[in-house]
Design brief:
By secondary structure, the protein is mainly alpha-helical. It is 67% helix and 9% strand. It is built from 6 helices and 3 strands; from the N terminus they run ααααβααββ. Strands 1-2-3 form a 3-stranded antiparallel β-sheet. The longest helix is centred in the middle third of the chain and has 37 residues. The relative contact order is 0.07.
Length: 216
């Protein structure tokens, strides 16, 4: 007995395709806990359809045979996947739900990213603070005995930087600081034949220093 008409064959192939999709949906529901039993009724219907057209494939037109073969391959692939998952479920080897595991992994990654970001910000802030102290004040002296205002401002900036760094400032007085800058300037001018000396408040390894740079 031949399969009746082209319309009937196409309609049955449409139903075959629809049942394959529904089988996948209901198996996912079953594995996810939304169904108590696997969808055996749909699977039984699909088996009958697959057997019927496997026996009568010679009665199908080329396009219908091509479509049936594709659907059969899809169904066979799903069957193999569901069979393995059923076996795992029966043996108590069901893996944790991927969605939950993925969310946990993503949360851990986000936490690590946030921790890295905070560390980077803290490092940048510390570096920025150090740069701020380092560039808190700089001044160029050429005749320090006539530039007491400059030296006074340099002294105040140097003293403030040491206080912020928690260093002892009791031994620093305005007078001995002025004397140091004047002597240092004259010595550098004499030994290097420079005209100007630039003084910069600098932090090196957590310690505040006064750096003297020879200018042209």
């Amino acid at each position: 007995m031949a399969v009746s008409t082209t319309t009937t064959i196409d309609e049955e192939l449409n139903q075959f395709e629809k049942d394959i999709r529904q089988l996948k949906i209901e198996y996912e529901q079953f594995f996810g806990g939304g169904r108590k039993r696997p969808p055996t009724e749909i699977e039984w219907r699909l088996e009958l359809m697959a057997k019927r057209y496997a026996e009568r494939s010679g009665e199908l037109k080329f396009g219908q045979r091509f479509r049936y073969n594709n659907l059969s391959q899809t169904y066979a692939k799903y069957k193999d996947v569901f069979r393995k998952r059923l076996q795992q479920k029966e043996e108590g080897k069901v893996s944790r739900h991927f969605g939950s595991a993925a969310k946990k992994i993503e949360a851990e990654r986000a936490e690590r990213r946030e921790e890295t970001r905070l560390k980077a910000e803290a490092a940048a802030e510390a570096k920025g603070g150090a740069e701020k102290v380092r560039a808190a004040f700089r001044v160029v002296c050429s005749k320090p005995e006539q530039e007491t205002d400059k030296i006074t401002k340099l002294y105040e900036a140097f003293l403030e930087a040491k206080q912020k760094a928690g260093e002892d400032t009791l031994k620093f007085t305005r007078s001995n600081f002025h004397e140091f800058v004047m002597k240092k300037t004259r010595d550098l001018q004499k030994t290097t034949h420079c005209k100007d000396v630039e003084y910069v408040v600098e932090v090196a390894e957590g310690h505040v220093k006064l750096k003297a740079l020879v200018k042209g």
